[in-house]
């Protein structure tokens, strides 16, 4: 170990990410993506896992709810292409369990003003 390089289990050679957003008539559409060249595993971290990538998307809209006030509704889709991404299989230096990125998931959220004075920030037109 003192005279030889070995990659760490949690290291990748390349990583990148990006995001785009578009506002249209009170709606906000966003998409983001990331790519990783693959973590290391196996005996003494001599094996590199396949690359991982994921695309997420969301849409949000400002609205005024009677009796509540200015609110923002949001719908998010995680892992749009439902891709199975194996981060590590439980081998490697100090790694004892497999790990995966999340599968396809859909989340909804409603941001409302707090009753003691704070308000939800509306989306800009």
Total strand count, please? 9
Number of helices: 0
Major sheet: arrangement of strands: 1-2-5-6-9
Query: Radius of gyration from the CA trace?
Result: 21 Å
Bin the strand percentage: over 45%
For this entry, what is the oligomeric state of its chains?
single chain
Low-confidence stretches: none
Specify the helix fraction band.
under 10%
Give the overall shape, derived from the CA principal axes.
elongated
Task: Measure the end-to-end span.
Answer: 58 Å
Describe the secondary-structure layout.
Layout: E1 15-24, E2 27-36, E3 40-41, E4 47-48, E5 52-65, E6 69-78, E7 86-89, E8 98-100, E9 105-111
Antiparallel strand pairs: 1-2, 2-5, 3-4, 5-6, 6-9, 7-8
Describe this structure in words.
This protein has 125 residues and is mostly beta strands. Helices cover 0% and strands 50% of the residues. The protein has no helices and nine strands. It is elongated and about 65 Å long.
Describe this protein with a few key phrases:
125 residues; mainly beta; 0% helix
How do you describe this structure in short?
With 125 residues, the chain is mostly beta strands.
């Amino acid at each position: 170990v003192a005279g030889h390089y070995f990659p760490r289990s949690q290291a990748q050679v390349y990583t990148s990410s990006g995001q785009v957003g578009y506002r249209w008539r009170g709606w906000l559409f966003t998409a983001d993506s990331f790519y990783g060249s693959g973590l290391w595993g196996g005996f003494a971290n001599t094996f590199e896992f396949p690359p991982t990538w994921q695309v997420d998307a969301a849409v949000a809209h400002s609205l005024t709810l009677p009796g509540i006030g200015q609110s923002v509704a949001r719908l998010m889709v995680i892992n749009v292409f439902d891709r199975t991404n194996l981060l590590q299989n439980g081998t490697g230096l100090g790694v004892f369990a497999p790990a995966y990125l999340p599968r396809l998931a859909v989340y909804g959220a409603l941001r409302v003003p707090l009753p003691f004075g704070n308000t939800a920030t509306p989306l800009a037109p």
